[in-house]
Peptidase M19
Amino acid sequence: MFIFDAHLDLSMNAMEWNRDLTWSVEEIRESEKGMTDKLDRGNNTVSFEAMRKGNIGLCMATQIARYVHKDNKLPGWNSPQQAWAQTQAQLAWYRTMEEAGELVQIRNKKQLNTHLERWKTSEGKKPIGYILSLEGADSIISIDYLERSYEQGLRAIGPAHYGPGTYAHGTNSIGGIGTKGKALLKEIERLGLILDATHLCDQSFWETMDNYGGPVWASHNNCRALVDHNRQFADEQIKELIGRNGVIGMALDAWMMVPNWVRGESNPKTMGVTLQQMANNIDHICQLAGNSLHVGIGTDLDGGFGKEQSPSDLDTIADLQKVPQILSERGYSSSDIENIMYGNFLRFLQNAL
């Protein structure tokens, strides 16, 4: 089955962690043996080969670069200018992968439909489609930089990531969007970008909803009813997105899937983390919506974690092909499963691009 993944940090893996995604997952793991700078070294799950094997022919691929004030202890760049430059380096990598025939950028509906038809009919190695997304808006030095990003192909943007940001407050922080955030939302709406509500703290989420009338989704966000943490959405937030015809992508970071996960200590097998928890989150949203039209896949695989913090029955991203059978065994129809694996996000994109 064709799969759309609404959130992959491909360029971050390539440019910050020096992973050549043209290698196989196994080759990357072998190259990282003995490395200790990150917990997920040697535990990667994503490569272009694995994506093709799993029929993941289209994804939202991110740029990400946090700007941090001097008193902010989170890792990041010391100026917005540095953060912007980092996103431009990431963009250069995407362009190089296009030249190599590995990727193709999708900017509009015509390109989307052409790409989808190619994946239906073409044989052999096909370029993976990517739509550019910005995770956290700190790299937008001033509002006019957003139009520059749009011209480069940016089609979705999340105002916040972790902590307090320039335009909104994110995960593990408390606060609203302020004057700068409202100006950003106005420009997002003017350009017709997709607003990604992922990572917005509760106050910033609701202020955003009060000040934005354009297309909105959450690329990678699970349910607070299943794991009680501010990173997750409460039912009221999920219902708000449903009411706006939004789609919510299910993430595969283990701490978002089971309670009481301790990073660096907990183990997916002993904690019982499997793709069944993804199905639990899918089902929760479907029950709130009364249908299967508002949930999809947004794995965030290799987004700062790897196999050590992923479902135990997932070795590579190709194992997403196990999800349709899991849903079928729960009574989901073939049309429901197609909605969830790709249809809902593609329908959204057909209207938004």
In short: The radius of gyration is 19 Å. Strands lie at 3-8, 56-63, 103-105, 128-135, 154-158, 194-196, 216-217, 248-250, 295-297. The chain has twelve helices and nine strands. The domain at 3-352 is CATH 3.20.20.140 (TIM Barrel).
